[in-house]
Amino acid sequence: MNTTMKASIRAAAVAALAVTLTAPRPARAQEANAGGPGEWLSRYTTARTLGLGGAYVATADDPLGILWNPAGISGMDQNEVRFENARLFEDTQINGFSLAVPGSWLPSFGLSILSLSSGQFQKTNDMNDPLGTFKQGETAYLFTMSRAFTPRFALGTNLKLVQQTVEDFNGGGFGVDVGGWYDVSPSVRIGATVANLGGPSISLRDKAETYPVNVRGGAAARVLNGRGLVAVQVDQAEGLGTRLHAGAEYWLQGGITLRVGFDDAYGTGGFSYRFAPQYQIDYGVADQPLGMTHRIGISYRFGGFFASAKADPDVFSPTGEHAVTKITLNARTKADPDRWTLEIVNKSDEVVRRFSGAGQPPAHVQWDGKDENGLPLADGIYHYRLSVKDRVGREVLASVRQVTISTTGPQGEVPVVPVGQSEEQPK
């Protein structure tokens, strides 16, 4: 084996090891495997999935979720573009870009590109004399198609091309992933995938390296009126063995989500902030023996299927100038709308007023600050959310927003000054 090839192999191993050691994994697997074929892709985590401990096969409802389950995009409502970045040690980094377009009577489609790039590696001969530097890189292109056969069942597939470059050597190969999910109940979903069917198999020179088959299965449950998620997952792959993942997330008011997870041997966490409400920023972190691993993601949602509600004004007084607030409603469902519901809840998450009706929601409703019995409610902050179900049982939910009842006027102290005495004089 010549010097160049030796250096190339060492560089490939180092780059794979960079991803291997900075992704959450058991210590026993680190000792047994220093970066197998395609491990950088099978071990890839986004900011959200890192926060959930990698337990994502039963959810996978964002564009890059196709890496866990290609059927996941059938559970999405809006078109979405996502970008992710992960910076590892030795200047190694992974960038991800993905676009997903959910369908109704047509299948859902997705396109994703992920790239692993290393820093500069030192090339030496058998005498350890420096011969310059070079880089190593891998890129994966994935085309996804998914179809929901019923509101409770969907199947999907990834067709992927992976290219690898080490110095002057390069190669590529094709592979297939298949996956599906099934809703056991309105709040519980199970999912499973088989990745790397028939490849990719890449030859840099003489010998081909084939990505091992990776099997994933898990379940996810919506809790706390849909504001919480609990998920578990088990993975099995040659070289990596069996790994357990678990995680949970909770949506706070104001578009903030907190996450905590466990990835076989390491604790993880993260958060998201949704604003405008089309934009979302995700952050994930894991505690590694080599240090903290960080992920950052940005997404933009547009078009597709949605529900929205907005109160104007968002602070009103039933006894003042603004006696009511007008809540504008809008929705687009995958099938014909069947029924809509707008619920207003207090700080104890109790529904104090409900508006509902058949078909498409009206352009707006007016709320006078009274409960279901027509009694005035106390001053304070209330939250509202619009949900719309279509004729086959699918539901789109608007973001949770808040509105404030305030019947009291401005408060403060008015100084009393005795006659003949200025404010500067002591009382």
From TrEMBL:
Highest taxon above the source species: Bacteria
InterPro entries membership: FlgD/Vpr_Ig-like (IPR025965)
Keywords from the named record: Signal
Disordered: annotated segments: 408-427
Domain FlgD/Vpr Ig-like: 325-388
Alphabetized Gene3D superfamilies for the sequence: 2.60.40.4070, Outer membrane protein transport protein (OMPP1/FadL/TodX) (2.40.160.60)
Signal sequence segment: 1-29
Biased composition range(s): Low complexity: 409-427
Full protein name: PorV/PorQ family protein
Native species: Eiseniibacteriota bacterium
